[in-house]
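Entry for the shared binder. Reason: the reviewer on the internal report wants the predicted structure included alongside the sequence.
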Amino acid sequence: MKIFLSMMVFFLVSVLAVAQIDKGDELAQTGNWKAAINAYRNAPSDATQQFKLAQAYTQLGNSAKAITHYRAGFAIDSTAIKPMYDYGKLLVNSQQSVDAIPVFTLLIERDSTNASFHYYLGEAWSGLNQVNNAIPSYQKALLLNEDYRAARLDLIKNLIQKREFSKAVKFAKQGIAADSTDVKMNSYLAQAYMNSKWYDKAIPVFERLFELGNDTEYNRNGLAFSYYSTRQYEKSIENYKVYVEEYNDKEASVFFNMSVAYMRIEKYTESIEAIEKAIAIRRPLLDKEYVQLAAVHARNEDIKNAFYALKTAQKERADDAMINYQLAIAADRYFKDKNSIIPYYENYLEIHGKKSPYGSLAAERLADLKEAVFMDGDD
């Protein structure tokens, strides 16, 4: 009789427990997490109850309480695979990668064929910036499931970070072969090409991204620079104009490149305007821009303005050997009076010496000038 009563009590308790869990699950389906939690709390305290509470708190974004309930559940049942998988993902998503690594390592020991276990182990390593450990995990996930897009994207991202651009290109191309409209995959391919300086290959990828409606600041600047680097100056200027109008009109390097591009196609007025904008942005360190301004004037055979642009560049960086030598050459071309030219070569040699990059040339020209002055009978 006592055994029968005990069995009846156990049966009723079990039925009640199942009823409370079912009630909580029903409430959870409609997102009523507060009521679901109350229902779960009324169920007997066992592993299932703890895991249900953990899931509910995860949905509410309360990671701390969710982790507490997961750990309470594992204290009762340490073999539950699904809760352990959810727990590991929660640790990764809450930046607790150190704790997540042993969780996914254990899961892989139990089932090494599960691609997701390897992927999230990679995510945990990636969260610690351990690229060398993350990459093999992503590769294993992709080997187990070649359609695992998230694993492929994160693998490519880490390969780019490690500067293994050829491998990044290979995996990105495989992803694009499966879906040519994948914006993220195309974006990573463009980044890999840009970082490896394969600008001719980057151009069609950027153009494809625009076809897909992905006109971003990075993509527009990347396309403009790729055209610039492959000497397609008209197209470079066209894209830089869009970049300046739509994204960023305060980037000196953009106007500098535009100035060079205009100079290459002999549009000197536009080249000067562009470099002057770069100068206005770059102050106070503007030596590079003034050297470019001088180059434009020189190409346009405006010797006077080329000379004064280099004088301004020298004021910006008086210890630069290249600037001081170019200034001496500009003075040589600008002044007819040899006595006016000599001080510029003397200044170069005084600062940089005969053993500097342009020292022998400067010394030789200075000697010629002094000889010419002597032969002419000048003081």
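Summary line for the report: Residues 4-13 have pLDDT under 50 and may be disordered.
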